[in-house]
TrEMBL record:
Compositional bias annotation for Basic residues: 30-43
SUPFAM superfamilies documented for this protein: AhpD-like
Ranges of residues in domain Carboxymuconolactone decarboxylase-like: 80-158
GO MF term (any one): peroxiredoxin activity
Protein name: Carboxymuconolactone decarboxylase-like domain-containing protein
Organism encoding this protein: Parahaliea maris
Amino acid sequence: MNSDSDSARKHAGSWPRGYCETEPTPRAAAGHRTHRSHHKRNRAMTEKTRREIGLETIKDVYAGDVVTPPEGYPFSDIMLEQLFAELWTRDTLSMRDKRILLLGIIAEKGEPTTFKIQVKASLKRGEMTPEEARELLLFIAQYAGYPRAAGMLAPLEEAIAEAAADKQAT
């Protein structure tokens, strides 16, 4: 019987020292030890770069409809440096694929405000048409249930109307 904790213990020694502190250097990735002060110097530069990348990405993901998160708050710093600088910038899945996946998760969790924000950004970025957004909700209803999906109808239509109004204003 393999438990998750057994698996974690088995693989715990396979990460290079300092891996969680900074991005691995080529030597560290190859399993070589690096000096800790080297990590501290690179960490400051890497965090600043990751924050800048995160800020650019969050503005892109939300089509400019975002308030820049303040620096110095752990929640927003980690969100920018990990979620936006690391995950949203990966190119294995397209931005549209990520958005569709996210919309399904948000709808299933019953988060209408976040659903509206994501639909509006998707429409403004040209990732989906209003018809595709409506079809997506119909599909989600089959898996998340009609009560959850029904709670997303008004936010969906509001997002469609707001995105259209924003488009006409420009």
